[in-house]
Amino acid sequence: MKRxxxxxxxxxxxxxxxxxxxxxxxLKAKIAVVASNVxxxxxxQRARQRGFDAFFLSSKGLSREAFDRQVIHVxxxxxxxxxxxxxxxxxxxxxxxxxxxxxxxxxHPSLLPAxxxxxxxxxxxxxxxxVSGCTVHFVxxxxxxxxxxxxxxxxxxxxxxxxxxxxxxxxxxHQIYSKAIQCVLDGRVRxxxxxxxxxxx
Length: 201
Hints:
This protein is an alpha/beta fold. It has helices at 13-23, 42-49, 64-77, 94-99, 120-127, 162-185, and strands at residues 3-8, 30-36, 54-56, 82-85, 104-108, 131-138, 148-155, 189-192, 195-198. It folds into 2 domains: 1-100, Rossmann fold (3-Layer(aba) Sandwich); 107-201, 3-Layer(aba) Sandwich (Rossmann fold). It has a 7-stranded mixed sheet, sandwiched between helices. Strands 8-9 form a two-stranded antiparallel sheet.
């Protein structure tokens, strides 16, 4: 059974969606470890309540590289095959990317390359787009710039607020993240340059 390492900084709703998909046998994987850079993160508490190995790793006084070395050590010690960012609010260092090249996934609440970074839903509303959505992508050295694995579109309604749009996008995140994880674990994704190509098996 392939092993997932989950990194989060907040409520961990995508972590919980992954765990539910595993419970229902919709995702064939095991959560090996959950780690957070925020001691009070609700997602970390929920992971402990579910009985997972869950760690708070302090970044206080550490360089990005020094903190990342701690995280890499924990992930390697727990034999994580794939690293899944679930609202992890830190940019990863090149050393981290190198340690898990093409084995780090993230889900972002926009149709990348549109609206990378923070507050993507607010950016979409301010720009006036009619369609937004979410993207699961490999993580590289850039900001939300890695090869795209899956996307889901969500219509932007005239009456939408940032909260209502975020909620509808989050529903899709919870669905496509696990699908993308399964594709990668099954070896059904091949990276060629900027493209993550689906391999039929």
